[in-house]
Specification:
17% of the residues lie in helices and 36% in strands. The C terminus is likely disordered. It is α+β, with helices and mostly antiparallel strands and 204 residues long.
């Protein structure tokens, strides 16, 4: 995700979706599988996506017990990047073909930049991104990881135990415009309205 966001911040050349200095926060919900050998020693533990009846990826020892837990990781991320060095630093940890976050932003920015001019004025005041997915690894424990988006009903998702969820919220920077009687600052988002014509942004 950091790599894809850095690519967007450094590569976007439009002026209608400038996300520099925006607040970025989110939650990653993971199904974590832990397995143990017959001797009680842990043979594979950690953030291993639970794949159906399999205890994990790359487990070589015989496994006699396994269980899953749901882990929620809340995070915040700065929206500044001068380069995409983070992509090279991640190396094999990068998800093959990405998670779709960067391409979603690029598509949205491109559509906004192509919109015809006209009133009333329009400004993006917030963005929400949610991805429901499963993970697959090819080539053993050192192989590539691929994100498989899941477009299933709530009932179908409830029957799976390999579902991961990423939610990201982006909000514009705030400026102080005054103070309340108790000294609490009064803020408002810094927006950049532009004329939005009849162009309709397709939902994907």
């Amino acid at each position: 995700m950091k790599c894809e966001f850095a690519k967007f911040l450094t590569g976007y050349r439009g002026d209608r979706l400038d996300l520099h200095d925006w607040g970025v926060s989110g939650t990653l919900t993971m199904n974590v599988a832990t397995s143990g050998s017959i001797s009680g020693d842990v043979s594979a533990t950690g953030l291993v996506p639970f794949q159906g009846a399999s205890a994990g990826i790359g487990v070589r020892a015989s496994v006699t017990q396994k269980y899953t837990t749901t882990v929620n990781v809340d995070f915040e991320m700065e929206s500044k990047a001068d380069n995409v060095a983070i992509c090279a630093a991640a190396k094999s940890l990068l998800v093959e073909s990405g998670i779709g976050f960067g391409s979603w932003l690029a598509n949205l920015g491109g559509q906004l930049d192509q919109a015809a001019a006209g009133h009333p004025k329009f400004a993006v005041s917030g963005l929400d991104y949610e991805l429901v997915f499963a993970l697959e690894r090819s080539g053993g424990i050192s192989g590539n990881i691929t994100v498989i988006p899941l477009a299933l009903s709530a009932e179908a998702l409830a029957t799976r135990n390999d579902v991961q969820t990423l939610k990201v919220v982006l909000v514009p920077p705030q400026e102080v415009i005054g103070k309340k009687k108790d000294g609490t600052p009064i803020t408002r988002p810094i927006l950049h309205p532009f004329g939005l014509g009849p162009t309709v942004i397709p939902q994907s």
